[in-house]
Amino acid sequence: MEVVDIPVLGKKFTWFTVDGKSMSRLDSFLVSWGFIANSGITGQWIGDRDISDHCPIWLVREQSNWGPKPFRVINGWFEHPKFLPFVESSWKSFNIQGKKTFVLKEKFKMLRERLKVWNKDVFGFLDLNIEKTVKEINDIEGLLEDGGNT
């Protein structure tokens, strides 16, 4: 079976040293022509790295609808002393009737909304601060990729 290295979109490199002086394309997808033909894959997108020294890579299709955004938890929440009591009291306060799967889905939906407010009240705009810092790091890495050392 012949495998193909799919064209790269986005960044050139998938790995960076902590100091940013070395970078390389260590990671990629290798797929067969049959997989490409059946899946509609057009490339692989190298995204912005976060806390890892490796960048995430996604397979890109012609068009995809992945549905609603998944329930997301910020790891730092677990270190806050009031987080678990807040979640527990919120969960117990939800009074939903119906089938168990419906009740679970609705409780998660309500908890998600409460956590958005709690996160903003306790941490401020943490997501925006994280995104801003990650963007600054990735902008610097982009300059380094292009050969600029300023």
Please write out the topology.
Elements: E1 3-5, E2 8-10, E3 15-16, E4 23-24, E5 30-32, H1 33-39, E6 41-46, E7 57-61, H2 83-93, H3 100-123, H4 126-145
Parallel strand pairs: 2-6
Antiparallel strand pairs: 1-5, 3-4, 6-7
Organism: Trifolium pratense (Red clover)
Keywords: Kinase, Receptor, Transferase
Protein name: Cysteine-rich receptor-like protein kinase
SSE-based structural type: alpha+beta
Rg over C-alpha atoms, rounded to the nearest angstrom: 21 Å
The termini sit apart by: 45 Å
How many structural domains does the protein architecture include? 2
Task: State the order of secondary-structure elements, H for helix, E for strand.
Answer: EEEEEHEEHHH
User: How are the strands ordered across the major sheet?
Assistant: 2-6-7
Strands, count: 7
Low-confidence stretches: none
Q: Quick one: overall form?
A: flat
User: What share of residues is helical?
Assistant: 40-55%
What is the makeup of the main sheet?
3 strands, mixed
- On the 0 to 100 scale, the average pLDDT is 84
Estimated share of beta-strand residues: 15-25%
Annotation field: number of helices = 4
GO molecular function: kinase activity
InterPro entries: Endo/exonu/phosph_ase_sf
Keywords: Kinase, Receptor, Transferase
Protein name: Cysteine-rich receptor-like protein kinase
